[in-house]
Amino acid sequence: MLVSFLRTLILYIVVIFGMRIMGKRQLGQLQPSELVITILISNIATLPIENSDVPLILGIIPILTLMCFEVILSVLTLKSIRFRRLIWGNTKILIQDGKIKQQELADLRYSVDDLMEQLRTNGIFDLREVEFALTETTGQLSICKKTSCETLNPKTAGIRVTETPPPSIVISDRKVLSEGMKNCMLSQKELDRILKKEGYKPEEVFLMTCTPQKDYYIVPLEKKH
Q1: Is 109 left (phi over 0), alpha (psi -120 to 50) or beta?
Q2: What percent of the chain has pLDDT over 90?
Q3: What is the pLDDT of residue 208?
Q4: Nearest-5° angle of CA 190, CA 185, CA 196?
Q5: Is residue 135 within a helix (H) or strand (E), and if so which, with residue range?
Q6: Cα-based torsion angle of the residue sequence 178, 181, 186, 187 in order, rounded to the nearest 10 degrees
Q7: What's the pTM?
Q8: Going edge to edge, which strands form the sheet with 216-220?
Q9: Nearest 5 degrees, angle CA 77-CA 82-CA 85?
Q10: DSSP summary character for residue 48
Q11: What's the Cα-to-Cα distance from 68 to each of 22, 41, 110, rounded to whole Å?
Q12: 3-state SS of the chain: helix, strand, coil percent to 5?
């Protein structure tokens, strides 16, 4: 009994230590690779606990190996956008300008019931209230309601407004994203002019977002001491 207790305690400490190294995320925010690692670790950890004949080291070594692999994978995805998209995928627009993009739903194998369930989870029961909806790489749905459908909105105040799409990421961690430039209709010359005006080079920008109306926001890269 004491041996089983100690083996369980040791494995618990190893797993907790590994999870701290891998970072803090809620279960619903795990990327596909992180979810796979978590499932594998939980399965491997149960073997030495259930079977005392299995040496404890045979459970610890695979767990530590998977944790090291996940840390390396996280570093690679942080440094390379292409690798990040290969492993985690891209965000997809499911509703744009209030219209469902049926082909995107089919590509993601996302049923109408799945879409409506996600909308209801976000407190939306009428599809006509949605201006934009994007599915994140974690599978969660991010929703932008129409301005006229907000609880306290310009419509109730008698003010006419024009619906505008959300900002797109133009520069992510010093890397210029052509897809983001396309979404906000920003040319390379316009980007260069904005950066020159603000006194930055692309390699000095951590994050830059922009709308089609050229309403941009820049977060400079912090200098390492």
Answers
A1: left
A2: 12
A3: 92
A4: 20
A5: strand 130-135
A6: 0
A7: 0.53
A8: 175-176, 168-172, 205-210, 216-220
A9: 70
A10: H
A11: 9, 12, 33
A12: 50, 15, 30
For the segment 5-14, what is each residue's pLDDT rounded down to a tens digit?
787 888 778 8
What was the pLDDT predicted at 194?
93
Amino acid at 14: V
Indicate if the alpha-carbon torsion angle 162, 92, 84, 34 is positive or negative.
positive
* Total residues belonging to the chain: 225
3-state secondary structure of 114: helix
DSSP 150: S
Confidence band, pLDDT 50/70/90 cuts, at residue 179: confident
192: confidence class by pLDDT, cuts 50, 70, 90: very high
CB atoms within 10 A of CB 216: 19
Under DSSP, the state recorded for 53 is: T
Distance separating alpha carbons of residues 217 and 128, to the nearest angstrom: 29
